[in-house]
Design goal:
This protein is mainly β. Helices cover 7% and strands 58% of the residues. It has one domain. The model has no long low-confidence stretch (mean pLDDT 87).
Length: 106
């Protein structure tokens, strides 16, 4: 399977009367074929506070037009609370070369 990345966009669990939206790309693919996963990380801010998040996607889930990955975890605790998130990447993928993949890690 060629190196690729997935876009994601979903909201986390509401805590203290607000929720955070996570938008980004799960890239940095490791594995081959149907045995691969992606790393993701980011920052989400709301009402003068910020949460950091990172993780590893689940294995691919086959769809009619390709595959998606499950994403779940916790936004880092800040302002005396944390948020749980669960969602899936979009099915659409963007391809990039293995040479670009190596440069992402630098």
């Amino acid at each position: 399977m060629r190196f690729h990345l997935h876009k994601y966009k979903f909201e986390c669990q509401s805590v203290k009367g607000h929720c955070h939206r996570l938008i980004g790309y799960a890239g940095n693919m490791i594995g081959v074929g149907s045995f691969h996963f992606h790393f993701f990380y980011g920052v989400s801010s709301y009402d003068n506070h910020t949460h950091y998040f990172s993780g590893i996607t689940g294995m691919p889930v086959k769809t009619d037009n390709g595959h998606i990955h499950r994403m779940e975890g916790l936004l880092e605790c800040n302002n005396l609370h944390e948020h749980e998130f669960k969602g899936y990447t979009f099915e659409d993928i963007s391809y990039y070369s293995s040479k670009q993949a190596v440069s992402f890690g630098r």
